[in-house]
Design a protein that fits this description.
Organism: Lentzea tibetensis
Structural class: alpha/beta
Radius of gyration: 13 Å
CATH superfamily: Response regulator
Low-confidence stretches: none
Protein name: Response regulator transcription factor
Shape: globular
Helix content: 25-40%
Number of domains: 1
CATH architecture: 3-Layer(aba) Sandwich
Largest sheet: 6 strands, parallel
Order of helices and strands: EHEHEHEHEHE
CATH topology: Rossmann fold
Distance between the termini: 27 Å
Amino acid sequence: MISRVPTRVLRVALISSQPSLERGVAPIVRESPQLTWTGSAPDSDGAIHLCRADGPDVLLVDSATDPRWDMSLLLTSMFPNLVIVALLRRQSRNSVTAAWARLHGVQGLVGLNADASCLLAAIQSAVEIGHYVQPGITT
């Protein structure tokens, strides 16, 4: 649970080509009173449309959907106030991927299978201090 109430409710969306991921992430966001779910998109075109239409504050980005972090770089260039939290699949959990993601505008790094409290901590820290790396996520 996010411990400090932000001045406004944060709008959160997901970018993933895997529809099943939304079924896991959306309920966590919806259950937090400090967050609201704005939807999802499967790719960069959908992400741009989602950002323009719904104006999320935070994008959760599946590492399989943005493996080189080019989409994250594009989105943070187009929407400078956007916070991106990467959901890292097992093959992406290494220091090189983490560094590359950070260089491309990703503020938070968390495992795809992280529990609700870890995901909420990632969102909170990425928004409040601009950085979050789940402990032990990189090798």
